Amino acid sequence: MFIGRRRGARRVGEAGNIYVDRYTTEEWVLAGGVVVLSFLDLVFTLIHLQAGGREANPVMDYFLQTGGTDAFIIAKSLFTLLGVSVLLLHVRFDRVRFLLRMAFVLYAALFVFHLYVIYVRMA
């Protein structure tokens, strides 16, 4: 990942659908951004839950209801890290970079929504 040699295609015609050992700065920023924004979503969700709100994601709500806050935090973290790892591993495959970008955009929009909810509560 950090010391590998393969940054791109080795042969002509291998432009897409390849695995690489080294990722571009954009790929790292997108993956890291998704992880950071997911962590912020976790923090804001916990704040929202303490104020009497509910978890909107039924899968995460299941973990929250059956295992409590600790299970929720562990599940959210593991799902995020696993998902980002799979996307990063396949980032040079058709449409996967687009999916990574969309994950970043969706988490950014969710972050803005959390800020809006907090602002409305404070007003």
Provide the structure class: mainly alpha
What is the tally of beta strands? 0
Question: Any low-confidence stretches, pLDDT <50, length ≥5?
Answer: none
Q: Provide the succession of SSEs.
A: HHH
Instruction: Supply the number of helical segments.
Output: 3
Description:
The N and C termini lie far apart (47 Å). This protein has helices spanning 25-50, 58-89, 96-122. It is mostly helical and 123 residues long. 13% of the residues are buried. It has 3 helices and no strands. Helix content is 69%, strand content 0%. It is elongated.
Provide a brief overview of the structure:
With 123 residues, the protein is an all-alpha fold. It is 69% helix and 0% strand. The chain contains three helices and no strands.
SSE layout:
Blueprint: H1 25-50, H2 58-89, H3 96-122
Helix pairs in contact: 1-2, 1-3
Question: What keywords describe this structure?
Answer:
123 residues
